[in-house]
Amino acid sequence: MSKFNDVMKELQKSFNTGVSFMLPSVVVGGIFLALSLSTGEATDTGMNVTNSFMKNLGDLGIAGFTIMIPLLSGFIANSISGKPALAPAMILGYLANTPVGDDGIKTGFLGAMIMGVAVGYFVKWCKTWKVSNTIKTIMPILIIPIVTTLTLGMLYIYVIAVPIGYAMQWLVVQLGNLQGSSAILLGLIIGAMTAVDMGGPINKTATAFTLALMAEGVFAPNGAHRIAVAIPPLAMAISTFIDRKKYSSEDRDLGISAFFMGLIGITEGAIPFAVKDMKRVLPAIIIGSAVGGALGMINNVETLVPHGGLIVLPAVNGKLWYFLAMLIGTLVSVAILHFTKPNLEENMEK
């Protein structure tokens, strides 16, 4: 039991380390993308930014979001077993956040966390190998990175990602069966799926489903989805504003960035909070997003563009309930966080 507790403490430390190195990328990406999209117009393909400078600013924001998941994975592994684990974990973190295989499977931040942990302990095992002094000098820069990346990369592509892909296909079919039969249930499921992995495969499955229905002229499920995408970052932001003793100073600063990301429908703004306190944050944002999605569906809110947040309000049918559903879902999440998250000792002492 003592060994298990030691492993759990090591994992918690590694997750916190990964988040701390990821945070600047999240903040830069979120703020730049928010500024860029705030100048755009809602179109059938999403937010269209025409100003050249703002488009370039948006590209910088996208770059920040692109590297944040590899940074998370890389520094989780680095915390467990040092520098030899950094590059393999960043490569595999990027792989986890990129569509791979014939079905274009992507596992997002959850997959990146799994690969970060896997790399960390695989490299720790590699460092116990008995090799000659000549080989020992090239182990950390050549042998360990190559063996780790190849072994765990192929394991991810052929073993880990495949069942996830099948599960996502099954979910799309099940959601299709619900269409038209139960608005509130469909809204609850879409909202929950949107928040559960914040941009990962489950979230993207909800996106694919709503986009397919949009192509057929059915916009209500997209309304529920686009309400829900904004709730996790908005909830985390407001929670840091009103329950300051429950968050570190770093988290409180991140809350400002998360707020702007919520306004433009960037769910990933909640990822750092979820990584650091998954057992409290995930249930809160899933429930809040489910409530928001259900309210949107039963009030027949329709979002006519494939983007979310308050920034697309001009392209929404049922603007009042779009706003109210987002607000109520956010407040539900904030309330759950208020009653479940403890005050931090460092803040109690101040």
Automatic annotation (TrEMBL):
The chain crosses the membrane at residues 21-40, 60-78, 107-126, 138-161, 181-202, 223-242, 254-274, 281-300, 320-340. GO terms for cellular component: plasma membrane. Keywords: Cell membrane, Membrane, Phosphotransferase system, Sugar transport, Transmembrane, Transmembrane helix, Transport. It is a multi-pass membrane protein. GO terms for biological process: phosphoenolpyruvate-dependent sugar phosphotransferase system. Its main location: membrane. It comes from the Bacteria. One of its GO terms (molecular function) is carbohydrate:proton symporter activity. Signal peptide: none annotated. Residues 11-350 form the PTS EIIC type-2 domain. It is found in: Cell inner membrane. PANTHER family: FRUCTOSE-LIKE PERMEASE, FRUCTOSE-LIKE PTS SYSTEM EIIBC COMPONENT-RELATED. This is PTS system IIC component (Fru family).
